[in-house]
Amino acid sequence: MKAFTRETSTVVFVPGMNCDTDQIIPARFIKADRAEGYDKFLFHDIRRDAAGALDPDFPLNRPGADKARILLVEDNFGCGSSREGAVYALVDAGIRALIAPVFGDIFFNNALKNGLVPVRLPRPLCEALAAHLADHPRAEVTVDLAAGQVVLPGALGSHPLVLDAFARDCILRGLDEIELTLTHMDEIRAFEAARIAANPWLGR
């Protein structure tokens, strides 16, 4: 996965309480080849009108929204089924961080395993940020994982960014759990060789 240390970006507010993984990526697209990118499926059904055309009023369809690397979302984002494809769709669309009061638990952990930083801030602060963005759509937010802080625009200040230490280290290094294991191959091989030397029957 792509390493994340610090991202400064404009922010798109995507409203909607309890936005579940089927809204983030409808189930019918999960069988698609990931190598071709899941970004085209992101919010597929809710960002289109009844005729299937992109709705110009949907936040991510507005001019310049595709440049944003941070989304502000509402309570319980990513609830519902455990599909990891919801995170793939966001990552493939270039989203590096999400800000919300609360995330769905499984979605939160899937995000960490794919280098997508879920930032939890108090609800009143998220609401204040949404109000600020409504008046200042070009305002930027900095998510600084290395420094452990989130810097909001205007007078909204700087706030701690707290993640599990193991997940934080993996994201900073750009390593998922398999890639992290592979960094220890010399020690693994040495252990296997010593174990077989001490127990020759294991090598038969």
TrEMBL record:
Top-level taxon: Bacteria
Leading EC class: lyase
Record EC number: 4.2.1.33
One Gene Ontology term of the molecular function aspect: 3-isopropylmalate dehydratase activity
CDD domains reported for this sequence: IPMI_Swivel (cd01577)
Function of the protein: Catalyzes the isomerization between 2-isopropylmalate and 3-isopropylmalate, via the formation of 2-isopropylmaleate.
Identification of the protein by name: 3-isopropylmalate dehydratase
